[in-house]
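Students often ask what a holo structure prediction actually looks like on paper. The answer is less mysterious than it sounds. You provide the chain, you provide the ligand, and the output is a string of discrete structure tokens encoding the 3D arrangement of the protein together with NAP.
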Amino acid sequence: MTGQQRTAIVTGAGRGIGAEIARRLASDGFRVAAIDLDHDGLDALTAGLTAAGHKAIGIVSDISDESAVDSAVARTADELGPPVVVVNNAGIIRDNLLYKMAVSDWDQVMNVHLRGSFLVSRAAQKHMVEAKWGRVINLSSTSALGNRGQANYSAAKAGLQGFTKTLALELGPFGVTANAIAPGFIETEMTASTAARLGVSFEDFTAKAASAIPVRRTGKPADIANAVSFFASDTAGFVSGQVLYVAGGPKA
Ligand code: NAP
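The corresponding structure tokens follow.
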């Protein structure tokens, strides 16, 4: 098991893709620190992991807050050992067409995706460099290629790809890889909230999305967790600075 004696941080792990990533890394043998704003989601996750014999803690923290992130990473190191895997998964959407997009919609999306990923990676990198082994895995999106109504989100997700490639250059000499995963349509509360905003049932929304995806289905959180498991593994040590589209086709 890759993760034996190693600690991973997963942000936005209170539900959805992040919760599934946390479960997958735990079963790969990692001790897991799950960070989220939502206390109840973290409690449910860590109770399940602990009951299954894994070592996990939940930390309620806003990843866009510098001091909160520094404390969360320090607490992880104290309680679970140095975090050498970071999965920057926490995310929000504040969709609107450009002419209707508020500055607050722009700023909030940038703060969670870009500032948050920067803060968590910066706080954890010293542990990776000291260990001469590390993995940074960033959640981008097919929206990085452009998506109507998501000027803020697509810019943030494209920004994360540049961030990933730069970390790969800077941290590679210390045994640390950095990669991004760009999911297509994944069934979570995020996509459910988009269906609700558009006034269509989630069933109709996923069926329509599936018909446009080459493999003719929408994705599940486990599809993304599988890719994370690979990037976090020892066997992926020569793969860095890459963006893997996990979208049922070349793009969704
Ligand atoms: P989700 O169900 O909305 O879950 C996101 C989690 O992130 C929530 O638990 C949320 O907490 C947490 N979060 C938000 N802001 C935070 C902050 N400032 N600090 C700490 N935690 C925060 O989303 P998902 O669908 O699982 O998506 C996970 C990641 O994949 C995101 O980065 C998303 O952009 C990306 N992605 C998703 C899809 C998709 O189709 N679902 C496609 C491409 C990319 P609260 O609930 O308390 O707000």
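Residues 11-12, 14-18, 35-38, 41, 62-64, 89-92, 112, 116, 139, 141, 183, 185-186, 188-191 surround NAP (CB under 6 Å).
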